Amino acid sequence: xxxxxxxxxxxxxxxxxxxxxxxxxxxxxxxxxxxxxxxxxxxxxxxxxxxxxxxxxxxxxxxxxxxxxxxxxxxxxxxxxxxxx
Length: 85
Description:
Blueprint: E1 8-11, E2 18-25, H1 32-48, E3 52-56, H2 63-84
Parallel strand pairs: 2-3
Antiparallel strand pairs: 1-2
């Protein structure tokens, strides 16, 4: 993961436990070196059990749409956690 980063990590307020990683994908993510980096991030998040939400960045992303995507991804992860128990 040297020189790699995730754009945002949402954490539980009470325990500071990571809930969701968010990666903002703009047009530069179509380049080969970015695609390779994205694959590494996907793999690392999956291995850590941290859901990763990729948001395609556009000029006028409606906030409500992004909020809904975040909620859906967190809910999905919680459902998956319950199934694993």
